[in-house]
């Protein structure tokens, strides 16, 4: 039985190698354990990791445990989703969004990456 694809947990230390240097576009879920909106969005992020496996890397970063990276990207609210392609932020989604909205952003990045 194949194991489910899960988001990769990143930290301030691993962010450059896991996200910035990634060959694939990366969806970064910046979250906090105390935030109910983050908890509500978490299953969607896990589903996206499975659905976009091998096309998009999905990562999650706990902003409380790793404050340096959110500060570098001017993240002041959670949840915040960043989509990076070749190390550059190409999309930013702040707050809860339903899966179709996030998928549309990912699909746009994938389309422009192959164009």
Mass-distribution shape:
globular
Strand segment count? 5
Mean pLDDT: 95
Show unreliable segments.
none
Counting DSSP H or I runs of 4 or more residues, the number of helices is 4
Q: How much helical structure, as a percent, in the residues?
A: 25-40%
Order of helical and strand elements:
EHEHEHEEH
Which architecture does the CATH hierarchy give at level 2? Answer: 3-Layer(aba) Sandwich
The tally of structural domains comes to: 1
Name of the level-1 CATH class? Alpha Beta
Stated plainly, the CATH topology is called Glutaredoxin
Assembly annotation: single chain
CATH superfamily: Glutaredoxin
Structural Rg: 13 Å
Fold blueprint:
Blueprint: E1 8-9, H1 15-20, E2 26-31, H2 36-51, E3 57-62, H3 68-72, E4 80-85, E5 88-94, H4 99-114
Parallel strand pairs: 1-3, 2-3
Antiparallel strand pairs: 2-4, 4-5
Task: Write structural notes for this entry.
- The longest helix has 16 residues, at 36-51.
- The protein has 115 residues and is an alpha/beta fold.
- A hairpin with a 2-residue loop joins strand 4 and strand 5.
- The protein has four helices and five strands, in the order E-H-E-H-E-H-E-E-H.
- It is globular and about 40 Å long.
- It has helices spanning 15-20, 36-51, 68-72, 99-114; strands at residues 8-9, 26-31, 57-62, 80-85, 88-94.
- The protein has a five-stranded mixed beta sheet.
- It has one domain (8-114): 3-Layer(aba) Sandwich (Glutaredoxin), CATH 3.40.30.10.
- 32% of the residues are buried.
């Amino acid at each position: 039985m194949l194991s489910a694809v899960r988001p990769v947990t990143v930290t301030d230390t691993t962010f450059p190698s896991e996200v910035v240097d990634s060959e694939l576009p990366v969806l970064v879920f910046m979250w906090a354990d105390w935030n109910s909106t983050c908890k509500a969005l978490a299953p969607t992020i896990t589903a996206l990791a499975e659905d976009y496996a091998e096309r998009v890397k999905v990562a999650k970063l706990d902003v409380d445990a790793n404050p340096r990276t959110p500060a570098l990207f001017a993240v002041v609210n959670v949840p915040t989703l960043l989509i990076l392609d070749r190390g550059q932020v190409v999309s930013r989604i702040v707050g809860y969004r339903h899966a179709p909205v996030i998928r549309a952003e990912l699909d746009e990045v994938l389309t422009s990456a192959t164009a």
